[in-house]
Amino acid sequence: MSSSDKAWKISLKAAGDGNKPASKLLFLRFPPEIRFIIYRMAWSVDPELYRIKKSGQLRIAYLKKQLSFVVKLGAVSHQMRVEAYSEFFHRTQAYFRWNTQMQGYSLHNVQVMAKMQSSFLLKYHLQHVSLYWPENYEHRLTTLRWLEGLKQLKTLKIILPNGPDLENRKGAHYSVNAMRRLAVSLARRNANLEKPFVTFVADRLELVNLWNSVDWFRALVDGLAKPDAEPPHQIIEQHLGCLNPLWAESLAYRI
Asked: At what angle do helices 137-149 and 107-118 cross, to 10 degrees?
């Protein structure tokens, strides 16, 4: 039995019967620090149990296990759901990345992206997204629709793996329209929700100057920026959908 399974059973045992009033749950009488420690133990999943030996990537079962542990915690009681969901999604970033032909096709990657897009849990509670800007136009459309539907999006990091397509007018046109659609979508979010903090990151240092030389891109960045806003001080402890852990650690250049 994994440590997460043990922690999950401990939390259930401490909570008692989820049908009883919250005031009678022993677990909810613990100090908040203790409850949150148990929450983190309960939703933590050992990636080594789901790693594909040949590629080193993580199977879709890893993502399913992550989400299932959070849902189970939320099913015990209303208070536990509020606390666990708030803490989990405050510290978790979804790493959304489609594989392209250049990067190599991965069935697991496609399955993970589809699972994330169809998750009601993520739709209503996900706060932080790292988006590896997809080259395929079809993937851009489905990804933008998904982003538009996230109810609690607070931060969005857009990773640019390639330079702007300045020679292919059709390709450049798609990029412009897709990014502009994203800007409009974020600007039109529900008035009750705070505008997400958006940053752009380049995979390689030489891409920074290329993107900054494009007028429409500079205007887009200015349009998405929050006036006088400071970047949120987020402590991201884990990723959803991060099949290859190096993906989340290899980015150092900020536009």
From this structure: 30
